[in-house]
Amino acid sequence: NNLRKEGAQALATNLSQDKTILEELDISRNNIGVAGAKALAKMLTVNKSLRVLNLFANAVDVDGARALKESFKVNTTLAKIDLGCNRLREKGVKELAEGLSLNNDSAIRTLGIRFNFISDDGITEFFNMAVFSKTCSLKHLYIKGNYYTELNIVDLQKKITENSIILHVDVFEKLKNLKQSQLERSIWISPIWANTQDAANKIKSFFEDHQKVGIVVDVRVRNGPKIPGRVKANIYAIVEFAHPNSVFRALRVASKKKAIIAGNRIKIYKAGSGVAVNVKPTSKHRR
Questions:
Q1: Cβ 232 vs Cβ 191: under 8 Å
Q2: What is the DSSP letter of 28?
Q3: I need a labelling partner for 278 at 20 to 30 A (CA). Which of 22, 134, 138, 157 fits?
Q4: What pLDDT is stored for residue 231 in this prediction?
């Protein structure tokens, strides 16, 4: 099907009627756009039958999410909604989080926001506003395919455990084998110029030989999700030291504007945090 905004608006009109009994609606990949999303959001403020709504890949965008916020604030029957692949970005998920946090009677247990160009900051803000709020009703959250780092996800998983929150998050599964002791001894750095063994060797030599930070146990270079508008690949590295003190020495290197590896300036993050020491190149390092 290709409903577009006109089809979505017609559906919304029908589903706003008192006698509607439809419980599940899947209109994924129908290009309903912002106008269609707004019509469905308005419908959700009065509809009492719909339990499942799939809006995956519909160009809902930030303005559509802003409209859905209003329905999230008052709807008490919708239990599952998939908003994946809708270009929501940080602003859009913030709108959704606000709506969820303001509804003490929300029935939404499952939310999908996969593939929405959401960074670490956006993911963290969503968790702070929605997941860690006293009104949180979520039991299943799907965030795969966004621009998060595994170390920030580990930090969020730790906070969920500390707060005794029962929530299944799809990306938590791959982190089960990452021990807390490794986090305490690790940093992650970006951007990395290439995903090669040579790059890993240069990173190891920089921290061990040039800056005397400490013994490097392991360097793992990873390819992150492609970022729209950026020509260069999104590559980062996780550096694990033998001792936790090396982490603070590494951060000190960045604070002194010395975090330049093979002519490339980098950001240094403490594992499990979304905070980096960002270094601007001095005239000495410019070419």
A1: yes
A2: T
A3: 157
A4: 66
**Rounded Cα–Cα distance for residues 27 and 2 (Å):** 9
- pLDDT (average), residues 207-228: 85
Under 8 Å CB-to-CB from 271, ≥6 apart: which residues?
151, 154, 182, 183, 184, 185, 186, 187, 188, 238, 247
Between the alpha carbon of residue 8 and those of residues 13, 114, 180, the distances in Å are 9, 22, 47
Radius of gyration of the chain (CA): 22
- Contact by Cβ (8 Å): 106, 76: yes
| Residue-level pLDDT at 195 | 83
Tokens of 265: 């300036």
Q: Taking the CA of residue 149 as centre, how many other CA atoms within 13 Å lie in the half-sphere pointing to its CB?
A: 26
Task: Note the pLDDT of residue 275.
Answer: 41
Contact at 8 Å (CB) between 103 and 73?
Answer: yes
* Whether pLDDT at 283 is above 70: no
Distance CA(99)–CA(92), nearest Å, equals 11
Cβ neighbours around 53 below 10 Å, total: 22
Long-range CB contacts (within 8 A, 24+) of 243-247: 243/185, 243/214, 243/215, 244/184, 244/185, 245/214, 246/185, 246/207, 246/213, 246/214, 246/215, 247/184, 247/185, 247/186, 247/187, 247/271
Overall average pLDDT of the 109-128 stretch: 94
At 155, list the tokens.
């930090």
Q: Are strands 216-223 and 235-241 parallel, antiparallel or unpaired?
A: antiparallel
**Which run of H or of E encompasses 44?**
helix 33-44
Q: Where does residue 181 rank: exposed (0-12), middle (13-18), buried (19+ CB within 10 A)?
A: exposed
For residue 250, the one-letter residue type is: A
35-46 mean pLDDT = 97
